[in-house]
Design brief:
mainly alpha; two-stranded antiparallel sheet; 2 strands
């Protein structure tokens, strides 16, 4: 395994820590009191769960050979790192041991809670048939903050720069679920049995798999891609900062909708 470039990794982590703290301590968590509030959260957050998968598959396409005829591409170590993460995200297990992606698990959590799945389903179906993000946003009437969040992710995807894709994947998505939120979810689960047990399982699985094992793999992957290129590291840092700011804006929008309703 290649050496992890500790100093630039540490520099990014230090620079983004204030933004991470804004997310972890966001006022949104304090206003989620019951299943109704959680449904609003899920209506927005499901787009982040979906575009996370799109970002992940982009990395797999850029860092491995996914076409036929097959040829060795990149380093075997990086191929292993991204494929290991894909397996866990695209074909994990639910609470009953059934294989499914984290996005499909999230959809089931929404359905169990009584959240409206029509919007995200229409978005996916429109995008599948048209391959046009703007048309899918419009047809499904996606909330503006969710739309901006996905647009940012796809700008990074379309940059064709794997080191940026890996950076926002590594530092902009992992390890951002505060313990306070888990406590709130456990309380709601106790007060509303069989309404959010799947969502609770999703979060626990996310922390167990994504925030621990996958975060280590992702750091190694980003380190491999940036290497000793100072320009790559600076671009990675800037992209991560922008990614975290987009998450704050997404949480602000959820907070506003919950408090205004």
């Amino acid at each position: 395994m290649k050496e992890i470039h500790d100093q630039p990794i540490s520099d990014i982590q230090s620079r983004i820590e204030p933004l991470r703290q804004q997310i972890i301590n966001h006022k949104l968590y304090g206003v989620i009191k019951d299943v109704k509030d959680l449904r609003v959260f899920m209506k927005y957050h499901v787009y982040a769960v979906w575009d996370f998968m799109s970002l992940l598959k982009t990395l797999q396409q850029n860092l491995t050979c996914t076409t036929v005829p097959w040829f060795p591409f990149g380093t075997a170590e990086t191929r292993f790192l991204i494929n290991e993460i894909v397996v866990g995200e695209e074909s994990d297990v639910d609470a009953h041991g059934n294989r499914k992606s984290h996005f499909e698990l999230y959809q089931e959590a929404m359905q169990q809670s009584g959240a409206n799945l029509n919007q995200i389903s229409l978005f996916i179906e429109t995008l599948k048939s048209t391959r046009d993000l703007n048309q899918a946003f419009s047809t499904a009437n996606v909330p503006d903050a969710a739309k901006q969040f996905v647009e940012f992710t796809f700008n990074i995807i379309n940059s064709n720069k794997p080191h940026l894709q890996s950076a926002i994947f590594t530092f902009g998505r992992e390890d951002l679920i505060p313990s306070m939120f888990m406590s709130i979810i456990k309380d709601i689960d106790q007060n509303f049995p069989n309404s959010i047990s799947i969502f609770k399982y999703y979060l626990e699985r996310h922390i167990e798999i994504d925030g621990d094992h996958h975060s280590h793999l992702a750091i190694q992957m980003t380190s491999n891609l940036c290497g000793t290129n100072d320009v790559f590291w600076k671009e990675a840092e800037d992209a991560t900062i922008n990614s975290l700011n987009m998450r704050i804006k997404l949480w602000d929008a959820v907070f506003d909708e919950i408090t205004n309703s």
